Amino acid sequence: MRIVFMGTPQFAVESLKELINSGNDICAIITSPDKPAGRGLKLKESEVKQFANNINIPVLQPISLKDNNFIEQLKSFDADIFVVVAFRMLPETVWQIPPKGTINLHASLLPNYRGAAPINWAIINGEKITGVTTFFIEKEIDTGNILDFEEVEILEKDNAGNLHDKLMITGAKLLTKTINSIENSNVESMSQKQFIISEKTLKTAPKLSREICEINWNNDVKTIYNLIRGLSPYPASWTIFENKLTKENIIIKIYSAEIIEGEHKSEIGTIISDKKNHLYISAINGLISIMEIQPEGRKKMNIKDFLIGFREIENWKVKSKKLLFKKVSSS
Questions:
Q1: pTM above 0.70?
Q2: CATH dotted code for 210-319
């Protein structure tokens, strides 16, 4: 089959490679326009374009997906199907073009975790199982008929980064399998309504805001731990350290941590450290042991290196609008 492939980040590159290696005819690649990045604001190509530069396939980078010239170009490729992986929402005038439809690969087990950040939210919510789904694109985002899916286990120490990589590889193989089934007329689509008991029970995956990424130390340690790993390595969870004497504030990003469960007598949000090897922050039902950290304006580092350069840690506390300084006593 002739395929127009649409995608932008590394997650999409793996699928594109798998489709090409499986002998599919990729007649065009659509990706996002080059964007200014870094301190010098030099134009940066998407990962999909960087990969496409080394293969002889036309690359289109439309600013508007509704542009008439772009739509005419799409039609001229005479593709059987469009394949979308981690790209923008398509207008109906685009996804209705190919005779065999437009399919999407989504990094969750639909209908749960529709939205922009399914990998992050699955970990944040403490899921043990997630997966990837292929489905036909329809008018409402992530709601089309399901073609196939594959489950992936979420391990206790998985973060968003390594779960992304597992889903990327599994998704690429599932997408190729789906394309082969469509080509051989050996696929039956399933309405997502079959999997919905109640709309109220569906879990969603909205875009991650700065507020969502702030740690609420009033939560139990498991919830905080899941937030930290669900946001690592990007965009990263954060909190504020405040000097109790000078009132200086420092924004701290936390990339990895461990849980020390158990009762304690410290106020919630207390910083506990031996000034050399460990830094704990108290929460409900235990302590969070910080392993990897990044103070504002500095590089990411392990906790030992942080403590070497951060003097008088005993003068600091956690500051947060979400934090109600209440005492937790042992029973």
A1: yes
A2: 3.10.25.10
